[in-house]
Specification:
- The chain has about 210 residues and is mainly alpha-helical.
- The chain folds into two domains: about 80 residues, no CATH class; about 110 residues, no CATH class.
- The chain is built from seven helices and five strands, in the order H-E-E-E-H-H-H-H-H-E-E-H.
- The strands form two sheets. Strands 1-2-3 form a three-stranded antiparallel β-sheet. A two-stranded antiparallel ribbon has the order 4-5.
- A hairpin with a 2-residue loop joins strand 1 and strand 2.
- The longest helix has about 40 residues.
- It is elongated, with a radius of gyration of 29 Å.
- The chain starts with about 25 loop residues before the first helix and ends with a helix.
């Protein structure tokens, strides 16, 4: 009922108009369309039930504007990198044990939360939850460590023949208790049956694919 009478307000002397409650993305598209109209690259634009419509000339048929790519095709500014290139934040903690993973970190945070709850409440139920989570985390640590070294042993002989330099780098990594802060831990390659990747180039490829996909 309201939008059916919206046209009656056009060019009214009191300058009353009805504005739709748009999302941030849609409102950004409207602002870009307004810039295009100011630069006379389009004739007019309007919204109808959240849909952005634009006329490039006074005799053209209206076209829908769904994304910033449509704005670009109408003559708008070049898209920003954040709008056309997928990004994802990847956190690699170089001071972690090389067999550590995100699942262990998540369980460790749960353990810490239960511990804080137990210290605050001092109840038997809170203590039980904390101990259960602590035991679960310790068991997961043992399993992760065992699985990592089992996988490592399977690949060491092959790496020794193919890349002796990389082989000794891995051996030294196991012998030394401390690793350089810039050294990224081995990563699992999903395209190679989740085998561990040790070389810097392969690690970079894994991270790039993770970010893009």
């Amino acid at each position: 009922m309201v939008f059916s009478n919206k046209k009656k307000l056009k060019n009214n002397p009191d300058k009353i108009f009805i504005a739709e409650n748009l999302t941030k993305h849609r409102n950004d598209l409207i602002n870009r369309l307004n810039t295009l109209r100011t630069k006379e690259k389009i004739h007019s634009f309007w919204t109808h039930d959240g849909t952005r419509l634009v006329n490039t000339t006074d005799v053209s048929s209206p076209n829908k504007v769904k994304s910033t790519q449509d704005i670009y095709e109408l003559g708008g500014e070049v898209l920003e990198a954040s709008e056309c290139i997928p990004t994802r934040e990847v956190v690699v903690r170089c001071d972690d044990k090389i067999w550590y993973n995100s699942n262990l970190r998540r369980e460790m945070r749960k353990r810490d939360r239960f511990r804080k709850l137990f210290l605050r409440l001092k109840s038997a139920s809170a203590e039980l939850k904390f101990k259960q989570q602590r035991n679960k985390e310790n068991n997961l640590k043992k399993q992760a460590k065992k699985h990592f070294y089992a996988s490592l042993n399977e690949n060491l002989d092959e790496i020794k023949q193919a890349n002796p330099k990389q082989y000794w780098k891995i051996v030294n990594m196991q012998i030394k208790n401390d690793r350089p802060v810039h050294d990224v831990p081995p990563l699992k390659d999903p395209n190679q049956n989740y085998n561990l990747a040790y070389e810097s180039t392969k690690k970079s490829e894994i991270l790039n694919k993770y970010v893009l996909y």
